[in-house]
């Protein structure tokens, strides 16, 4: 069972609409643990960023709406581990020449302190280990018209064998790119979920019409061949379940395909901007800010 860990500077969650979009995004990406920065939520409002799928397990807020971090976890996940997983926007880069599109003189000092922190804490930049020598960014500064990689997922070296990849996702809902990594510890077994009928399918006219037609044909073919009504009923339930799974799978693949195409288009545009910044193109791809 993969544990998907996401680190994201959301640039404000005071808007109810943005909170809902962010929570939907976490579920869409099958996130198990979300490390959220710059929530801009006061202590009394932290509970607003949760639903039946995600709960806030720890938080730190300022007295004003300018800071704040949250650690949200999927409600069904229980992870007992003493190893370190640290995600956040550090406002610094490990390698100025590689991690900034325009390096400044002050970067070398801050970078040295950042690297020293990693060595003394015995934690690793997992994206760098997976993409040695590669150049990519996680933040766009509209003020300086520059890109930088200031967002990191840092982990204990013992966890590295369980990391297959670290992805910088397309920029959505914020001025920072989310980072996500699947952690697959072999000590955790897969969880089996009991199938339940998705009642929302009854709102789909196409599904209802198709199921009614298929069910009538099924009963007409099998009614006389089953001597025991209970056998026919159990068989009918299996038939209905199969149709539900098939229809749901088709719809899910269609939605995922559409989302993938949209994210791919966003990713292509962002890469073009990273390589050759243009204010006109950037204006066509503005992201939602804080409310």
From TrEMBL:
Instruction: Give site residues, Important for catalytic activity.
Output: 151
**Signal peptide region:** none
Q: In this UniProt entry, which residues are annotated as the site Transition state stabilizer? A: 91
Where does this protein hold Mg(2+)? 89, 91, 175-176
Record's keyword annotation contains tRNA-binding? no
Q: What is a single molecular function from GO for this protein? A: phosphoric diester hydrolase activity
User: Is Metal-binding among the key words of this record?
Assistant: yes
Q: Domain named Endonuclease/exonuclease/phosphatase: which ranges?
A: 6-176
How are cofactors bound according to the entry's free-text note? Probably binds two magnesium or manganese ions per subunit.
Q: Which GO terms describe its cellular component?
A: nucleus
An individual GO BP term: base-excision repair
Pfam families in the cross-refs: Exo_endo_phos
Q: Which UniProt keywords apply?
A: DNA damage, DNA repair, Hydrolase, Magnesium, Manganese, Metal-binding
**Primary enzyme class:** hydrolase
- Location of site Interaction with DNA substrate? 176
Q: Which domain of life is it from?
A: Eukaryota
Similarity comment text for this entry: Belongs to the DNA repair enzymes AP/ExoA family.
- This chain's protein is named exodeoxyribonuclease III
């Amino acid at each position: 069972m993969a544990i998907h860990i996401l680190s994201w500077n959301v640039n404000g969650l005071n808007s109810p609409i943005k909170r809902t979009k962010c929570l939907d995004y976490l579920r869409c990406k099958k996130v198990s643990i979300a490390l959220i920065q710059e929530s801009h939520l006061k202590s009394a409002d932290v509970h607003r960023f949760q639903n039946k799928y995600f709960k806030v397990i720890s938080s730190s807020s300022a007295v004003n709406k300018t800071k704040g971090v949250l650690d949200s976890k999927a409600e069904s996940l229980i992870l007992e581990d003493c190893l370190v997983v640290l995600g956040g926007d550090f406002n610094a880069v490990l390698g100025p020449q590689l991690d900034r599109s325009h390096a400044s003189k002050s970067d070398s000092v801050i970078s040295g302190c950042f690297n020293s922190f990693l060595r003394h804490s015995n934690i690793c930049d997992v994206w760098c280990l997976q993409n040695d020598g590669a150049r990519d960014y996680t933040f766009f500064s509209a003020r300086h018209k520059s890109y930088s990689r200031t967002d990191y997922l840092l982990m204990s070296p013992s966890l590295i064998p369980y990391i297959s990849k670290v992805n910088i996702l397309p920029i959505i809902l914020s001025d920072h790119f989310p980072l996500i990594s699947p952690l697959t510890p072999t000590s955790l077994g897969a969880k089996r979920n009991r199938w339940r009928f998705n009642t929302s399918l009854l709102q789909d006219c196409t599904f209802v019409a198709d199921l009614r037609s298929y069910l009538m044909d099924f009963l007409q073919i099998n009614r006389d061949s089953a001597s025991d009504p209970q056998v026919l009923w159990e068989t009918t339930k299996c038939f209905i379940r199969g149709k539900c799974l098939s229809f749901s799978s088709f719809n899910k693949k269609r939605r995922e395909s559409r989302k993938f195409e949209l994210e791919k288009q966003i990713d292509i545009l962002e890469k073009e901007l990273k390589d050759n910044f243009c204010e006109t193109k950037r204006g066509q791809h503005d992201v939602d800010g804080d409310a």
